[in-house]
Amino acid sequence: MLSELMAAQKKRTSRLRILSLALGAATIGQAVLLAESVQRVFVENAPLASMLVVFAALLAVMAVRTWLAYANGRIGLRIAADAKRDLRARLLRSLAANPLLTARQGQTGGKVSVTLDAVDEADSYFSQYTPKMAEASIVPLMILVAVFILHVPSGLILLFTAPFIPLFMALVGIQTKHKSEEKFEQLARFSGTFLDSLQGLVTLKLFGRAKRQEKEIQRSSLSYRDATMSILRVAFTNTFALETIVMLGIGIVALELALQLVVFQTMQFHTAFLILLLTPEFYNMLKNMGTAFHGGRTSLGAIRNIEAALGADASVSANTKETALAEKSAAVHEQTDTALAVDPARDKVVPLSAERSSKAFLSATPPVIELHELGFNYGSDAFALNAGSLTIHPGKQIAIVGKSGSGKTTLLHLIAGLLPPSSGGVTVNGQPLTAGAGENEWFRQVSYITQHPHIFSGTFAENIAIGADRDVSREEIVHAAESAGLAALAAELEHGYDTPVGEGGRGLSGGEKQRLALARAFLKRPTVLLFDEPTTGLDLHTERVLLRAMNELSRKATVITIAHRLHTIRHADVILFMERGKLIGSGTHDELLNTLPQYAEMVNIGRQGVGS
User: Fold this and answer.
1) Which parts of 319-390 fold into alpha helices (H)?
2) Is the pLDDT of residue 518 over 50?
3) Which CATH number covers residue 166?
4) Backbone conformation region of residue 158, classed left if phi is above 0, alpha if psi is from -120 to 50, else beta
5) Residue 412 belongs to a domain
6) Same domain, 282 and 380
7) How far apart are CA 578 and CA 374, in angstroms?
8) Percent of the chain with pLDDT over 70
9) What pLDDT is recorded for position 273?
10) Average pLDDT over the chain, rounded to whole?
């Protein structure tokens, strides 16, 4: 891929060589004019008036040299801009060619990291390494030839000391390349973990795994830090070694010239001074090449990661679905960052252990939930909720109804403990539900199933096991899946419960996601079930499967549902009617029909099939 990118830049690389040739001539010309100026002014005591032409020529050569160096840099920037545009285009085309298959591989954060960060990191290979290598392949050779013409022993010193720089660069470059690849692997892993956790934050919170996932993110972050610092350590070592080699080289040449000039008196001052001016230029060119080489090796690691990503996507396009699933299954066990693990010795899925408190916040039976002048607002001049006071008795079926935007989801989030009240509060068995004390115990008693439950990058078994706060066996996972109606789906897949599912549940239908979320609840067996009308948008068969599973779960639990369908509402023990952020009525279906006109109107619209 790198050869293809550089082949597309043949004209510009040829221009770089021509400019580098001119730069070498300008460098030698500048040294010759400077040596001539010093010789005539300080040795021959020539009047300044006679030196105006030499000074003017020297200034002109310096200006030309500066412009040539600038032009080389500009060409490098244009090569880098085109190469990065090409790389991003290839990545986007590769991802867009088979979006469903490529989405099942890895995590979104990792793909974003490669497309953005790795491509940006590749910049220095084209913008710095390429121009400096063009200069280093021409200018030092021209200076070496000029020194040999002036004084053979000095040329031999340069010839024999110069190889130490590329030799050291090669040794350091190999190490830098490997560390760079490691750094971008860590960055992709960290990005994937962070984005996956951010998208599934509510799920992690409800299952008591936020703290553990926070530690996982911290671990990924520290790994990326360590990889970056190791590259910087190599860079500092590289710089120190190069400076040492350059200093020793210049010192040896200066010593040899001093002996020839002062002791043996076999050399003129003009020649010695000219060589002494050319020697630092020679070594500086090699030193700059060494610095650019280090950056190029770092960029090469990023380019290799891009190439690997393109190769992985190409293999997905070429292979069958069976092969893609097999590769993904192997990758998941090595790279999944959802902090789920499989213990092969016990054949158990080991989920993140929920934090345990010294005191139990709740008993194993459904609790009494009380709202005390509960209020919440999203800020000044924003939506505000006023739910008032209410008692939800154990084992009751509660339906929250109202128009869109009336505050139903906000109320459910307050009851779930996902939002802190702005005023009033929620108590559970008489204890206040607040962040901190008792929060983890409360989340161990609650399951919240939304219309779009979050599915993590991992296997079926790992995603189901996240619902438990303990080690669970494969038999328990299979039983939970059968209870949720997933057994038939698992039987159709090549790898069964070890089949990987894409981050966010890509590859699963809406009903399959809902059933997977219910399987988590069957493992957890909560005493409080919260539903955000999970059957909305599903076909009748899937809806019946879900309702059957929900009814089984609700036998020993308090159920609070955001309801839109009449058959869900009318069977509830208590219906809470919300309007414009206020709880304006509560009671049974028949009671509200007789006492609350807004509710009666909503029911009539629902019967006519007009409303939601």
Assistant:
1) 321-335
2) yes
3) 1.20.1560.10
4) alpha
5) yes
6) no
7) 13
8) 75
9) 93
10) 77
